[in-house]
């Protein structure tokens, strides 16, 4: 065993070796909180605490995996017996075991947010409410908020103000929707994400013997990123640790960035009240970043009024000043940063994996993807449209879900007419209403359809029911997840339907399904998985968080992700891009001080991910929902003390053209790329995520055309450009101007290029030479 204690500073040592009783570490970014938690678990195990008795709750399953891996290095394979994961995955596991107490069977479905929204849409329709007022997203948000504050539908109905005054006034029926939604989830034997926590609370409140069992099982409870726990999560940890009081929480109030999802900073304050014996450890030294980065981050976060006194310093090298890049457009921002990565890699002998591009919203990734691809730099995108959100994947998963749980209303709606069986929406609605009105499950109705309905569709429904029954028989024979999935993909007709579709998209979808089947095979073949049933596979899939979606054999990639997803991570060189007013800070967060402070904390999180170098960038113009908008530099840049910034804001000059091509085949920024088949063959040895990460967007940027501008190419003043002029463009070559018209503050020209055909260009960007 290595001498891990020697690698700790004094307060870290105190925290790691603290034996029993509550412990809280609230400290700045990069000060070793996660490391302390990891070593503390190893230390406890070294002192004889059984791994089965330690529960550690992390922000992503991947973070849990890394922690487990580190502990394994110190203490050995016993680490595999630790209970680790996100709140959702750990308590889903417990609910599988104990959910019977609440009326759920162990094979309950976990609804994702698409399922939830679809159910809300159905309910709004059934209640004959106006679907323009009652928008599923908004309603789900309110229901989620209620659940995370442990407000049941009964309580909500009595006091609709829980959903906010605005909602109570404009949408008085949310309470009734919440009630129906909860009942429908229950009768579908399904829980949504918030239910996993809500129901755990109910379980522990109403079944003291169960609570008692887990209180004695988990002799030590640890929580990382404690600042982002909500009340529901907080109460679970409090109940679990009530007997032993061995609870250790680590976090940073300055990094609290999930208030919009119900995370509550009060939890940190309450903690001191709830645990009078609390030991508090302060960590002040940042080991991650240069002095420059730590001081810059401190100068920013000082602007927040609501925060704990903290003093974070770094003993690392001074480091470079923070660079600020101004680009003309979002496309140019992408190119400058890709070039910067390309050059820095060469000059400083760095790898792709040393770089991260962080943005406020997923939609911003497009320009960077294109630019990196052109330079052949490998990247991974975390978040965004994940493999499991694709239609063909959801379709097959829905079949699997319905085979395991025939009460699953959302899976039923997806598959009943897929492939097409001539069963229309009205018939489906009728089945659901019949089931609900007669207090039956959907399966009761479907399995005996002639009793409840007449008409043409009944025979088709009968055939469907027979098919599902045949799957249920196989399931009862304890066939493993792969055997089941293969059989269902083939016999349901799903695979065949995709196979005969010979369009590029159809082929890609067919291969995606093949990959899903491969991943089921991996799951079954993995010796670490004791239970390889279909039910367990489905659970694993539904609990993947965005950040868990990419882990493959090739770690050497530039990481692109939202700042929210980057919590806890660190990279040598970080680019925080899109530093513009209304984008970051987001327009939606400018309404009051609390929201603005949360945005500022988000920026603090972004800055503190960087070890050696931080670059901020913004564009003067970008496409926003298909409209070109002019942008202003973010106030956040000016909130960093100027002495830490490189004062010469550099307007980007890139080798590529800076013209904005309105007619290009590339979609505007908010369009998420579709995906196509992997370019590596799928081999049995590849993990699911290996396969996923090799999926390449379909809309590959075209390689730059061959035209090379004449050597003395100098752009002309195009303010008087008119139809009939002849021009040269550095990328598209020679062309004839067809039309010039006003576009916002600038003009656009339609030009017919000899080699490229017709293009529409914005004159303020297009480098054109009048010939
Ligand atoms: P965040 O708030 O971003 O989650 P954190 O407080 O959890 O950060 P860690 O990720 O645990 O910080 O540590 C930051 C970096 O500093 C890691 O690379 C870690 O290995 C290193 N580190 C922490 N403590 C020490 C130490 N005593 N000696 C050397 N390196 C350390
Ligand atoms: Mg951490």
UniProtKB/TrEMBL annotation:
Q: Where is this region: Disordered?
A: 704-727
Keyword flag DNA-binding: yes
Annotated ATP binding sites:
27-34
- Zinc keyword on record: no
Name it: DNA 3'-5' helicase
Gene Ontology terms for molecular function = helicase activity; hydrolase activity
Q: Report the InterPro entries cross-referenced here.
A: DExx_box_DNA_helicase_dom_sf (IPR013986), DNA_helicase_UvrD-like_C (IPR014017), DNA_helicase_UvrD/REP (IPR000212), P-loop_NTPase (IPR027417), UvrD-like_ATP-bd (IPR014016)
Which Enzyme Commission number(s) are listed? Answer: 5.6.2.4
Q: What positions does the domain UvrD-like helicase ATP-binding occupy?
A: 6-290
Gene3D superfamilies to which the protein is assigned, alphabetical: 1.10.10.160, P-loop containing nucleotide triphosphate hydrolases, PCRA, domain 4
| Residues in coiled coil | none
Please give the organism. Answer: Lacihabitans lacunae
Q: List the top taxonomic levels of the source.
A: Bacteria, Pseudomonadati, Bacteroidota, Cytophagia, Cytophagales
User: Keywords of this protein's UniProt record, alphabetized?
Assistant: ATP-binding, DNA-binding, Helicase, Hydrolase, Isomerase, Nucleotide-binding
Family from the record: Belongs to the helicase family. UvrD subfamily.
What chemistry does it catalyse, as a reaction equation? Answer: ATP + H2O = ADP + phosphate + H(+); Couples ATP hydrolysis with the unwinding of duplex DNA by translocating in the 3'-5' direction
The UvrD-like helicase C-terminal domain covers 291-568
């Amino acid at each position: 065993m290595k001498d891990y204690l020697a690698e700790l500073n004094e307060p870290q040592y105190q925290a790691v070796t603290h034996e029993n009783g509550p412990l809280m570490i609230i400290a700045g970014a990069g000060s070793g909180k996660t490391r302390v938690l990891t070593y503390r678990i190893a230390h406890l195990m070294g002192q004889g605490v059984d791994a089965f008795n330690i529960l550690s709750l992390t922000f992503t399953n991947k973070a849990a995996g890394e922690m487990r891996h580190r502990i394994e290095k110190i203490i050995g394979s016993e680490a595999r017996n630790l209970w680790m994961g996100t709140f959702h995955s750990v308590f889903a596991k417990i609910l599988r075991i104990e959910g019977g107490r609440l009326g759920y069977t162990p094979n309950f479905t976990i609804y994702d947010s698409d399922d939830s929204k679809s159910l809300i849409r159905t309910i709004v329709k059934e209640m004959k409410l106006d679907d323009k007022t009652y928008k599923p997203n908004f309603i789900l948000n309110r229901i989620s908020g209620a659940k995370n504050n442990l407000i049941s539908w009964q309580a909500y109905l009595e006091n609709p103000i829980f959903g906010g005054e605005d909602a109570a006034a404009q949408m008085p029926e949310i309470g009734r929707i919440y009630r129906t939604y909860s009942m429908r989830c229950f009768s579908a034997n399904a829980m949504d994400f918030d239910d996993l926590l809500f129901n755990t609370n109910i379980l522990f409140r109403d079944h003291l013997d169960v609570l008692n069992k887990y209180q004695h099982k988990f002799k030590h409870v640890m929580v990382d990123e404690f600042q982002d726990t909500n009340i529901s999560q907080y109460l679970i940890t409090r109940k679990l640790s009530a007997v032993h009081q061995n609870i250790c929480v680590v976090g940073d109030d300055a990094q609290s960035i999930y208030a919009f999802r119900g995370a509550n900073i009060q939890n940190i304050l309450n903690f001191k009240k709830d645990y009078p014996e609390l030991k508090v450890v302060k960590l002040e030294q940042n080991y991650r970043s240069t002095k420059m980065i730590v001081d810059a981050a401190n100068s920013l976060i000082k602007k927040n009024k609501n925060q704990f006194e903290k003093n974070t310093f770094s003993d690392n090298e001074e480091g470079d000043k923070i660079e600020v890049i101004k680009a003309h457009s979002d496309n140019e921002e992408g190119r400058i940063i890709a070039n910067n990565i390309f050059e820095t890699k060469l000059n400083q002998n760095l790898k792709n994996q040393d770089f991260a591009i962080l943005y406020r919203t997923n939609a911003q990734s497009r320009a960077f993807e294109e630019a990196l691809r052109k330079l052949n730099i490998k990247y991974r995108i975390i978040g965004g449209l994940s493999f499991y959100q694709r239609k063909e994947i959801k379709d097959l998963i829905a079949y699997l879900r319905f085979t395991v749980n025939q009460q699953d209303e959302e899976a039923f709606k997806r598959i009943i007419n897929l492939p097409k069986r001539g069963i229309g929406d009205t018939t489906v609605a009728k089945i659901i209403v019949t089931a609900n009105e007669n207090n039956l499950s959907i399966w009761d109705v479907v399995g005996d359809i002639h009793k409840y309905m007449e008409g043409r569709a009944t025979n088709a429904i009968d055939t469907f029911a027979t098919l599902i029954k045949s799957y249920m028989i196989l399931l009862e024979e304890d066939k493993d997840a792969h055997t089941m999935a293969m059989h269902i993909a083939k016999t349901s007709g799903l695979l065949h339907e995709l196979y005969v579709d010979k369009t590029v998209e159809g082929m890609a979808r067919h291969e995606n399904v093949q990959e899903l089947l491969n991943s089921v095979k991996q799951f079954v073949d993995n010796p670490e998985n004791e239970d390889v049933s279909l039910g367990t596979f489905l659970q694993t899939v539904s609990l993947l968080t965005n950040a868990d979606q990419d882990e493959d054999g090739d770690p050497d990639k530039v990481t692109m992700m939202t700042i929210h997803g980057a919590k806890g991570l660190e990279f040598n060189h970080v680019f925080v891009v899109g530093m513009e007013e209304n984008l970051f800070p987001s327009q939606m967060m400018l309404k009051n001080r609390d929201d603005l402070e949360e945005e500022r904390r988000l920026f603090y999180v972004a800055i503190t991910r960087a070890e050696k170098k931080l670059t901020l960038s913004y564009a003067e113009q970008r496409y926003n929902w298909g409209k070109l908008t002019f942008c202003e530099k973010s106030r956040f840049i000016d909130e960093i003390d100027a002495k830490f910034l490189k004062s010469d804001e550099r307007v980007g000059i890139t080798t590529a053209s800076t013209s904005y091509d309105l007619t290009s085949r590339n979609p505007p920024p908010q369009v998420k790329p579709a995906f196509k088949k992997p370019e590596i063959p799928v081999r049995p040895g590849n993990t699911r995520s290996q396969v996923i990460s090799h999926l390449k967007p379909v809309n590959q940027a075209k390689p730059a055309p061959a035209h090379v501008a004449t050597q003395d190419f100098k752009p002309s003043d195009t303010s008087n450009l008119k139809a009939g002029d002849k021009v040269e463009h550095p990328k598209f070559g020679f062309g004839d101007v067809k039309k010039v018209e006003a576009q916002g503050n600038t003009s656009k020209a339609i030009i017919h290029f000899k080699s490229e055909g017709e293009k529409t260009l914005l004159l303020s960007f297009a480098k054109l030479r009048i010939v």
